[in-house]
Structure formats: C-alpha cells, structure tokens
Amino acid sequence: MQSIRFLRIPRFSPNLLFFHLLPLKPISKIPAKNFSSQMRSSPSSSSSKLLFRQLFEKESSTYTYLLANVSHPDKSAILIDPVDKTVDRDLNLIRELGLKLVYAMNTHVHADHITGTGLIKTKVPGAKSVISRASGSKADLLIEPGDRISFGDLFLEVRATPGHTSGCVTYVTGDEPDQPHPRMAFTGDALLIRGCGRTDFQGGSSKQLYESVHSQIFTLPKDTLIYPAHDYTGFSVSSVGEEIEHNPRLSKDLEEFKKIMENLNLAYPKVMDMAVPANLVCGLQHPASS
Ligand SMILES: N[C@@H](CCC(=O)N[C@@H](CSS)C(=O)NCC(=O)O)C(=O)O
C-alpha cells in the first residue's frame, strides 16, 4: 500500500525541535510485520513530535527509555527496558504526561535485573509486552528483524544484534522524513558507551557480537544517537561516529576484540540465577501473566 503526500512535516531532534517544509516521500510498507498501536486515522494527519525521556535504575545501572508521539491524539507511548523496581516511577511519569502506554519492550533477556514488562501488564490494561522471538521468551509480541513497532505516527525498526545473548535486538527510529533526526538506536547490551555487553553466558559469542555491531549499528548514519541499556561510568548518550572511533573494544579488529572479551574477568551478575528464568516470562514467574 502506498500513499503520496506533500505536507508540512515537523522534523525534530531529541533535544531540539525544528520545523521545515519537506516533501514526504511515498510510504511503502516493508514486508516484515508492522506492529501498530493504532490505525492511521487519516492519511493526511502527519504532524508528529517525539517526547523522549531517559530514566535510570541505580542498583543495576539500567537505562529505561520512554518515547511518545505527543502530537498524535492518542499520545501513544512505549517503554524500552523497564525495570521491575522502577515501574511505579515510570507509570507515574506516563500518567503525569497524559500518555497512553501501548508497548513495554525488552531488548533482550536481562541477567542482572528483573524486567518490568510483566508487572506493567498487570497495572496497565491493554499494554503489550514485546521481546524478540529469538530470545525464547514469552511475550505478547515476538518481534523479528525488519519488524516495525509503531506508536502514533512514529516507529522503531527492529535489528537483530545477537552476541551478548542470542536474542538481543536493537531498536532504531525510522529512516523517513517525518521520523526523528538524527536517528536514535536503543542498543540494549550489544553496544555500551565505550564498551559492549559481555559474551560469556546466555548463548553469548564475541564473534557474533562483533559482526552484529559492525553490520547493524556501525552502518547507521554517524550522527545516530546511541542509547544503551546500561552505563557503569556516568555516560548517558553517544553516537555511531563516536563509538566507531573511540570504542576501546569494537574499534579493534575481530581477533583483538575476541582476546579483550576473553579477558574481561567479570563476576557473574549477582541475581542472574533468579533473573534469567523470571525474564523468560517477562518478569513474572507465572506464564499466564507474561
Ligand atoms: N555487577 C553487575 C553485573 C555487571 C555486568 O556483568 N554487566 C553486563 C550487562 S548486564 S548482564 C555486561 O555485559 N557488562 C559488560 C562490561 O564490560 O561491564 C551485577 O552483579 O549485576
């Protein structure tokens, strides 16, 4: 299905809002599945703006991301990588901002904390849990590479970035004129700022992680903003160009990268034995509630 429109399209960055007159290219549906929070009410309602918040859970140093299409009447919102301990904070924020949470998404099965997605489903009727099919987890939507996750007129595309775990994905904002510019990549634990996820459990593979990051993230425009699932050193955001140049692990060649990863000598996450089984059912140890 295609539509051609010439409209006043807002362009925006996460921090600054710009408005330009742009011709809107034909929209063509990609063959992979389209997960949409609502039907497009009118082909001419294209005004959209992103609300973006980066939220932090200090015990596990996890970032949760809130994105919403605030110019759309539905004010549809999504959460990426919510943590069970901070679900009430996140839901209060969503309530205060008058948003409607449609998807609670995971980038992967976390080993260091319990996801908030299952708990959110018990508190927000209609919100759907999302994780990759390759993760082997239960969720309402099992997404695959190339799928689109829509909220209002905005969308994320799904890229497979295995290596930290076999089911890791990166969510990237759309590559169309009415989508955020610069693009934003929510990399989970595949790519951290000046680091990357460990590869010593949960089907991890250094070679696979290296190939994932180089083929799926480092090929994005250099100004693409990198938003990871963790930071242990005080960083909050980076860019593709910055990580290509300065990432002390992934800027090396594959053989050197593998040696670095073999010698990380990290202790296993303290709650791993409890977190992994729980996260396979979206954080609730009750399959029916996933
Ligand atoms: N100390 C923490 C776990 C820290 C850790 O292992 N982090 C993971 C991501 S969460 S599984 C990781 O990949 N770290 C990479 C690195 O270079 O630090 C705990 O006990 O939970």
Automatic annotation (TrEMBL):
Organism listed in the record: Cucurbita maxima
Domain Metallo-beta-lactamase: 61-230
Keyword Oxidoreductase: yes
Keyword terms, alphabetized: Acetylation, Dioxygenase, Iron, Metal-binding, Mitochondrion, Oxidoreductase, Transit peptide
PANTHER family named in the record: PERSULFIDE DIOXYGENASE ETHE1, PERSULFIDE DIOXYGENASE ETHE1, MITOCHONDRIAL
GO process terms (BP): glutathione metabolic process; hydrogen sulfide metabolic process
Source species, domain of life: Eukaryota
Designated gene of the protein: LOC111481087
CDD domains: POD-like_MBL-fold
Subcellular location(s) of the protein: Mitochondrion
Annotated Gene3D superfamilies: Ribonuclease Z/Hydroxyacylglutathione hydrolase-like
Protein name, per record: persulfide dioxygenase
